[in-house]
Design goal:
heterodimer, A: 118 residues, mainly beta, 11 strands, 0% helix, B: 111 residues, six-stranded mixed beta sheet
Chain lengths: 118, 111
């Protein structure tokens, strides 16, 4: 398997459910990202992890909880979501630039998880 | 926050025509990226530009990093049906080194 993979590709959940999105990268990168893509809006960066440490949280509601157990895997745990959270959730990875906090290298994306919250 | 203005929002062209789209910003960027997104998939990197004035090609695609460092364009020559999709520009800001994305240009090819 190469590149960035995401599972599941589609998810339908109720507002009281708990689910998790999974991302795995096979590129040897050390930085991973979660983005939200809604119709007619730019990609919204949610979280950034560098060498397994969270370096950015763009004011994301606590009903989204990321986890990065190692540089190759990234999870997004979901609970008590709202219908407006329905979107395409994209994972990306990049090389991490050592010694330059916040510097973001060119990112490579997974296929996304299409989430529908009922 | 900083924004990228990407235009046009959508384009309808005939197969075989050339296509041009661009991104502009009020801020200086040190990297410009162009991605294509097919329906149901994530964005795929097409071209990356790292120097002002840089002109880079990838097959029928050509992109340039504007000399003012505040804009970039993407050209597609002799369009074919598989060029349909959404094209995103992205730039890394000089100030805080963050990557931000444009809203995309949706390309339609008429039969």
């Amino acid at each position: 398997e190469t590149g960035v993979t995401q599972t599941p590709r589609h998810l339908v959940m109720g507002m009281t459910n708990k689910k998790s999105l999974k991302c795995e990268q096979h590129l040897g990168h050390n930085a991973m990202y979660w983005y939200k893509q809604s119709a007619k809006k730019p990609l919204e960066l949610m979280f950034v992890y560098n060498f397994k440490e969270q370096t950015e949280n763009n004011s994301v509601p606590s009903r989204f909880s990321p986890e990065c157990p190692n540089s190759s895997h990234l999870f997004l745990h979901l609970h008590t979501l709202q219908p407006e959270d329905s979107a395409l959730y994209l994972c990306a990875s990049s090389q991490a630039a050592a010694g330059l906090a916040g510097h973001q290298e060119t990112q490579y994306f997974g296929p996304g998880t299409r989430l529908l919250v009922l | 926050g900083q924004q990228l203005n990407q235009s046009p929002q959508s384009m309808f062209i005939q197969e075989g025509e050339d296509v041009s789209m661009n991104c502009t910003s009020s801020s200086i960027f040190n990297t410009w990226l162009w991605y294509k997104q097919d329906p149901g998939e994530g964005p795929v990197l097409l071209i990356a530009l790292y120097k002002a004035g840089e002109l880079t090609s990838n097959g029928r695609l050509t992109a340039q990093f504007g000399i003012t460092r505040k804009d970039s364009f993407l050209n597609i020559s002799a369009s074919i049906p598989s060029d349909v999709g959404i094209y995103f520009c992205a730039g890394r800001t000089s100030g805080d080194d963050k990557i931000i994305f444009g809203k995309g240009t949706r390309l339609h090819i008429l039969p």
